[in-house]
C-alpha cells in the first residue's frame, strides 16, 4: 500500500492566508502562534502539533471555499469539532489548515412531525436534547463528553456512549448529511425520509474521521423520551459473578439501555474521589439502566434484580428518581477522572470483544496485570463488550510509560484474538492507525485505501488518520502525559 | 460523468467456459440456451436478457476464482440471488457471466449467545427464522418474498418489508460481510462485535446491487421473538381520515411494527380475490401491528383503537391469535396479485415520502389519476411513507403502457418534490438508474461514481445498474408485460 502524505511548505501556507481571510473574514483566520497553540491536540494529549493556520468558517460556502483552496494548492487540512476526541483524530498538521467548525452552531430546523432535527456541525451534542426535551424528545447518542462535544465530531468518530447498548452509535441516528468533499464539492447524502437509494455513503462517512470530507449540515433522528427510567446498582464479590449477571440479563431477553461494570480498583478510585457510597466489599459493581413504558420497566426491574441475585449479587439498589439515579451514576462517571487520585498517570484503552468473551478477556487482562506488575482498572460498557481498561503508571519513572503501553497494546491484541475490535467508540485517529493491520488483512486495508483515494485522491483531507501510513508506523509520539487537562479537573467525562 | 459499459465478445466468453468448468465443476456452469433463458429476468419482467453463461459456485473460493477470471479478461458479470428483485438489479448481461449464489445455502453458524447467525448468500430469508425460532429468535427483515428470496439478494438490495417501520431495513441487521471484490479479492467487513473501525463499508455495500462485489458470507443479527403480537384492522370512510390516524399514532409515541394502508380500489381487488371480509364501505383501511412485552402491547392496543376512532374509524377489529391475524393480513398480502383481477396489467411503483407529506401526495396521485383517466390503486407501508401505487392499464391497448408509465413516473416526481426518494425498498437496478438524476445532483452522482470506480474500476461488476449510464438513458425496455408470473399466480408477495 502506498503512502498518502502530502507535504507543503510554510511559505505556500503563508501565501494562502490573505485568501483565507477573504473567505472567512479577519476574525475567522488565526495565525498568531499563541492562538494556534490552543488547538495543538484533541482530548488525547500524547499527540501534539501546532496547526499552520486555523480557520473558523461560519457557512457551508466558506467551508467549500477553504477546502477548494486547499485542494488547488495541495495543502493538507484537518477538520476539528470541539476537540474532545480521544484518538488524535483532530491532531493538526503543522503545515496545514485546521478547519474548526465551532462557529457553525445553529440548530437549523426541528421537525417534530418527522422526528428529526437539522443541525450545523458545531452544535453541542446536548444542545439538541435541550432544544427538544420540552416536546418529549431527546437525541440518543450520549458520549460522556456530551455537554461539550460537537455533533460534527460525533459524526466524524461515530461516537457512542453508555446507552449505545440499546440505542446504538451515532450512525444509527443520522438520516442525512451535507458534506464538503476533499475537492470542495457540496454533496447531499440521504435526507429526512427513510429508504435506500444510490450508495448509502452515510454509514461510510460516519466514522471516517474527516478523511472523506467535512459534514456541514446533519439531519439527526430524535428519540421519544421514555416514560420511565430506573437505574440499578448491583454489587458482587467477584468480576466473574458480575459478568455472569450481564450474560443472564441479555439471555433473558431484557435489553437495558445501559449495563456498566466497574472493578474493585475503579470502585476504590471513585470512592476516594466522590464518596459515591457503593456497597462496601464489592469486587465488582454493575450499573444497569432500564427505560421504556412504565409497566414494562417495572416488570424488567424485578427480573434484573432476581437475575443479579441468582448470579451472586450481595446487594442491589434501585433508583427511579432523578437525584437517586444521578447518585448511582456519579461513581461510574467520575471513575476515569478519579483514577488520577490513585495513580500519577494512566492510559485509557478502548477495545471491544463479543460480550460472551468478556469473562475470558477480563481474566487475561488480570493475568497480564499480575505478570507485569502494572495495575489495570476496568470501567466499561459491559452490555456491548466495550472495554475501557485504565493502565496505571508513574510518568516520573523512566520506562514506565513504555511498559504501560505494552500492556495496553497487549489488551488490544486480546480483543482482536477474541473476535473483537481495536476501538469501540474512541476511533482510530493517529493513535491507532498503525494498529489497523492487527485487525485487518492486506486486502481489507487496500479496499479502505481505494475508497479513501476515491474521495480524497490527493490525500489532503486529514492525512495520517484512520489508515496506517507505513512511513510513520513504528515511531512513538513525543509527549506522554496521557491525561487530558479537562479530565484531570473532572470537567470532562469522555468515556 | 463518464460511462462504464464494458463489452465483450461472445468468443471471449466461450474461451472462458472451460476455465469456468474447472472452477465450478461441470454441473456448475450452464451454457445451453434453454437453461440460460430461465435466468433472463428477475421479478421485474419488463427487462430481459439471456445471460452469456451461468455459473453456480458453491464456495467463496469459487466465487473469487470466477470473478478473478472475469477481471483478467474484462468480462462483465452479474450476481444473482433468488431473482425475486423488482428493479432488474439482476438483469443478466448477454455477453457476460451470471453468477448465481443459490447453491451457497448453508447456515454456517448460529450463535445465540451473541444473538447472530452466519449464513451463505443463497440462504432463503425465512430459513434463518425457521432455524432460530425454537430458541425464541427470528430474523427481522421481512420482504414479502421472504419464503423464496435469498439473504444475499436482500443485502444487494437492502430489502425491507412490512415491519421495517419498527425494525428497519436489512442494513440494520447485518453485522459482518465477507465479500469478493470486483478484482477477485476476499475482504472482511465488520464482524460479530459492534464498534466502529476503519471505514464502515457495510452500509455502503448493502444496497450496492452487486456493483461493488458479491457477499459470500453474511453475519446477521437475530431478534428476540416478541412476547405478544396484536394485529388491528381499522376502517375509514376516507383516505384522509386514515392518514390522520397514522399521524396520530406516531405522534402519540406508539411505534407499531407495521402500519399498512389500502385504498378502496385495492380493497375491492383483495375482496374479489380472497374474500378477506374487510368492513363494507371502507374507503381506506389500516392494518396496524403491535408487538412487544404483553403488558405494553395491551396498553398500546387500547390507545391505537382510541386514536383510530378519534380520527373517524367506523370499525376497528383486533386479532391476537395467529389465525385471526393471518386473516387480516390475507387481504393486505394478496392485494398486489389481486389487482390482476381488476386490470389486465399494472405497473408497481415504489417511492418514499416523509410520512407527514403522505396526505398531500396521495391527494396529488388521485388528481393525476383523475386527469389521465388511469386508475391507481394504493397499498403501502404508511408508517414509513413507502408508497406502492399500482398503476393499472390494459396492455392490449396501444399506447396504454406509455400513458401508465407517464403517470408512474409523475408519481416518483411527486415523491422527490416532497423530499422523498425514487425507491423505498425495491432498489434502483436498471429500472430506475436513469431516474437517479431526478433525485441527485451532479456532485452527488459523481461522488457515487468515484466510489464505484474505486472498487469496480473496470466496470465489470453488474454494469448498467444503480447509476445512470448516459448512453442508455432515454431508451425504453422492449418487453412490457409488467407482471411477474409468480405474482400473477399469487405465489409471490413481494411488496
UniProtKB/TrEMBL annotation, chains A, B:
Residues 47-225 form the FAD-binding PCMH-type domain. Keywords: FAD, Flavoprotein, Oxidoreductase. PROSITE patterns: FAD_PCMH. Its cofactor is FAD. Pfam families: FAD-oxidase_C (PF02913), FAD_binding_4 (PF01565). This is FAD-linked oxidase C-terminal domain-containing protein. It comes from Nocardiopsis alba.
Amino acid at each position: 500500500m502506498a503512502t498518502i502524505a502530502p507535504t507543503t511548505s510554510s511559505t505556500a501556507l503563508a501565501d494562502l492566508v490573505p485568501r483565507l481571510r477573504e473567505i472567512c473574514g479577519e476574525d475567522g483566520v488565526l495565525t498568531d502562534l499563541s492562538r494556534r497553540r490552543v488547538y495543538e491536540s484533541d482530548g488525547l494529549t500524547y499527540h501534539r502539533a501546532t496547526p499552520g493556520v486555523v480557520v473558523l468558517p461560519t457557512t457551508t460556502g466558506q467551508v467549500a471555499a477553504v477546502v477548494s483552496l486547499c485542494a488547488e494548492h495541495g495543502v493538507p487540512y484537518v477538520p476539528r469539532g470541539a476537540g474532545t476526541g480521544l484518538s488524535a483524530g483532530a491532531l493538526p498538521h503543522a503545515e496545514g489548515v485546521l478547519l474548526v467548525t465551532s462557529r457553525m452552531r445553529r440548530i437549523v430546523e426541528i421537525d417534530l412531525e418527522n422526528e428529526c432535527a437539522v443541525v450545523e456541525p458545531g452544535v453541542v451534542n446536548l444542545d439538541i436534547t435541550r432544544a427538544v426535551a420540552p416536546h418529549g424528545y431527546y437525541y440518543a447518542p450520549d458520549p460522556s463528553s456530551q455537554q461539550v462535544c460537537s455533533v460534527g465530531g460525533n459524526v466524524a468518530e461515530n461516537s457512542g456512549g453508555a446507552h449505545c447498548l440499546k440505542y446504538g452509535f451515532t450512525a444509527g441516528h443520522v438520516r442525512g448529511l451535507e458534506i464538503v468533499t476533499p475537492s470542495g464539492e457540496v454533496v447531499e447524502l440521504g435526507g429526512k425520509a427513510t429508504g435506500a437509494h444510490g450508495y448509502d455513503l452515510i454509514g461510510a462517512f460516519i466514522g471516517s474521521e474527516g478523511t472523506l470530507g467535512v459534514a456541514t449540515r446533519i439531519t439527526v433522528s430524535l428519540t421519544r423520551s421514555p416514560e420511565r427510567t430506573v437505574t440499578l446498582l448491583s454489587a458482587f464479590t467477584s468480576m466473574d459473578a458480575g459478568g455472569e449477571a450481564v450474560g443472564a440479563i441479555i439471555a433473558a431477553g431484557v435489553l437495558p439501555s445501559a449495563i456498566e461494570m466497574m472493578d474493585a480498583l475503579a470502585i476504590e478510585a471513585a470512592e476516594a474521589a466522590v464518596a459515591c457510597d457503593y456497597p462496601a466489599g464489592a469486587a465488582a459493581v454493575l450499573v444497569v439502566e432500564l427505560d421504556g413504558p412504565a409497566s414494562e420497566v417495572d416488570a424488567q426491574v424485578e427480573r434484573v434484580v432476581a437475575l443479579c441475585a441468582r448470579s451472586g449479587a450481595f446487594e442491589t439498589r434501585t433508583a427511579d428518581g432523578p437525584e437517586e439515579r444521578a447518585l448511582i451514576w456519579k461513581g461510574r462517571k467520575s471513575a476515569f477522572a478519579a483514577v488520577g487520585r490513585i495513580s500519577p498517570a494512566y492510559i485509557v484503552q478502548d477495545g471491544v470483544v463479543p460480550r460472551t468473551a468478556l469473562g475470558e478477556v477480563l481474566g487475561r487482562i488480570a493475568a497480564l496485570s499480575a505478570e507485569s506488575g502494572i495495575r489495570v482498572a476496568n470501567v466499561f460498557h459491559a452490555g456491548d463488550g466495550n472495554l475501557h481498561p485504565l493502565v496505571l503508571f508513574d510518568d516520573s519513572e523512566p520506562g514506565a510509560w513504555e511498559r504501560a503501553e505494552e500492556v495496553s497494546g497487549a489488551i488490544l491484541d486480546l480483543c482482536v484474538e477474541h473476535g473483537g475490535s481495536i476501538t469501540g467508540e474512541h476511533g482510530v485517529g493517529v493513535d491507532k492507525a498503525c494498529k489497523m493491520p492487527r485487525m485487518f488483512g492486506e486486502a481489507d486495508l487496500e479496499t479502505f485505501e481505494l475508497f479513501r483515494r476515491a474521495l480524497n485522491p490527493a490525500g489532503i483531507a486529514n492525512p495520517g488518520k484512520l489508515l496506517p501510513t507505513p512511513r510513520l508506523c513504528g515511531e512513538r509520539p513525543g509527549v506522554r502525559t496521557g491525561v487530558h487537562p479537562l479530565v484531570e479537573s473532572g470537567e470532562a467525562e469522555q468515556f
